[in-house]
Design a protein that fits this description.
By secondary structure, the chain is an all-alpha fold. The chain contains 16 helices and five strands. It has helices at residues 8-28, 36-61, 67-78, 80-94, 100-134, 158-171, 182-200, 212-218, 222-257, 262-274, 276-287, 291-321, 331-351, 358-381, 384-412, 414-436; strands at residues 140-141, 150-152, 179-180, 327-328, 355-357.
Length: 441
């Protein structure tokens, strides 16, 4: 039967069906007896199903709330497991585990760099690939040179770019204090709250024509739509929160069996698993020729991880400690924060003209992979002390490289910086004006 003739509820049932083995085993406790491979398989399939449900919920919600707000909710739910993993390490640090604070920072910086190095670059490359394969993405421009082909982004992301810029600049100063403290929490969490207050007051845009499950649900009466969105968000959030951590830990265990160092697994493999719902959702959106929505979701995820995730670590740490305390980290993790901020700065310089080319995507990907692979080589071939010393030098070198590349791009695109600032100012003014409007007498 043609896919056009299938009832959308069959697709919805299929998504739920993927999650049932995990949710039933989790509810009954049967998952506790699973082997590592079984856990990875069942939990991984559940994450896949939950990602589709989450995407359908966000697309359906666009009919009733500003798209940026729907995507922001999607982004928070998709990366919730990353918050859980980092919160666990912060809690353990408060209980006296001296190494846990470094693990929290390592996991957090790894997740942030994966989101750009693999997420942003991968979605750009996938968008161009899909445009060549299907020829139906109006946001992809073919220039006659594959490296010059580019994805055009919605100019509305100027707001996210600006807020992410402020968070990135601030992040450069975090290591100077030797830890994450209350001032960092107030600034970063406050920044994200301000962002949410702006987007939630935005207009509900004209809904893009949908197909499948979102189209079916958007045609229902508003109470049914709202309940459907809440159910999809709630159920997929539960699945992601319960399945991603065992999935990540299972991958860690499999990696250790192949001799991959534990610290490397915690910084890279676990965050990659915890980011998988976000990557699946954005790949799904690109497959529907919605590359701009995919990028909006990735940028929103980066913003909430670079603000809320960092800012709340010290809160969890202090609660565990039983009093206020600064979450301290060592020189290596300071270098990790600096390179993460530098990568973010370079990625923003790439997006400041609201496009990302194949050449730029490949550069983001190659810089990310080369740094990780070189560091992995250090870990496998040197003593622990020598590997750490060389890793710090490597991180500092890549930080400088990212900043030099960023400076070059921003100088060349200084007119686009003014455009981003102007668009952001207009968005904020509209939001503030809408808040202050009084009913006419």
């Amino acid at each position: 039967m043609s896919s056009r003739l299938r009832h959308p509820l069959l697709g919805l049932a299929g998504g739920v069906l993927l999650t049932l083995p995990w949710i039933l085993s989790w509810l009954t406790g049967a998952n506790e007896g699973f082997s590592v491979l079984t856990t990875v398989t069942v939990a991984g399939v559940a994450v896949l199903g939950a990602s589709f449900l989450l995407a359908w919920g966000a697309e359906t919600a666009e009919k009733d709330v500003p798209r940026a707000f729907a995507i922001a909710v999607l982004a928070v739910l998709a990366v919730a497991p990353e918050y859980a993993v980092d919160a666990l390490y912060a809690w353990q640090a408060g209980q006296g585990d001296a190494a846990a604070s470094n693990l929290a920072v390592a996991n957090m910086t790894g997740a942030n760099r994966i989101l750009i190095g693999i997420g942003w670059s991968g979605i750009a490359l996938f968008s161009v690939y899909q445009a060549y394969k299907k020829g139906d993405d109006p946001n992809v421009t073919k220039t006659g040179s594959f490296l010059g082909d580019y994805v055009s982004l919605d100019r509305d992301i100027a707001l996210e770019v600006t807020f992410l810029f402020f968070a990135t600049i601030y992040a450069f100063f975090v290591p100077l204090g030797g830890g994450i403290g209350a001032i960092d929490t107030l600034f970063l969490v406050g920044l994200y709250v301000a962002y949410i207050l702006v987007i939630v007051r935005g207009d509900v845009e004209e809904v893009e024509e949908q197909v499948g499950v979102p189209a079916y649900l958007q045609q229902r009466a508003k109470p049914v739509r709202v309940l459907s969105v809440l159910a999809l968000f709630g159920y997929s959030g539960l699945l992601i929160f319960t399945a991603v951590e065992p999935f990540a830990h299972g991958l860690e265990a499999l990696g250790l069996q192949f001799g991959i160092p534990e610290f490397f697994m915690i910084q890279w493999i676990a965050p990659l698993a915890s980011e998988s719902p976000e990557l699946i959702v954005t790949a799904y959106l690109v497959n529907k020729a919605r590359s701009t929505a995919a990028f909006n979701a990735l940028i929103s995820s980066k913003l909430n991880q670079w603000t809320l995730l960092i800012g709340t670590l010290v809160v969890v740490y202090s609660i565990s400690l039983g009093q206020y305390g600064v979450l301290m980290f060592d020189e290596k993790q300071a270098a990790e924060i600096w390179i993460t901020a530098a990568q973010s700065f370079f990625a923003l310089a790439v997006l400041v003209n609201f496009t990302i080319s194949v050449r730029e995507a490949l550069l983001l990907l190659s810089l990310f992979l080369s740094q990780v692979l070189i560091e992995f080589y250090f870990i496998r071939t040197m003593t622990e002390a020598a590997a750490e010393a060389n890793s710090i030098i490597l991180l500092q070198a890549f930080t400088v490289l990212y900043l030099v590349l960023s400076a070059g791009l921003l100088i060349a695109r200084r007119s686009e910086i003014k455009t981003v600032a102007s668009l952001t100012g207009s968005t904020v003014s509209d939001a503030v004006g809408r808040e202050s409007e009084q009913p006419a007498d």
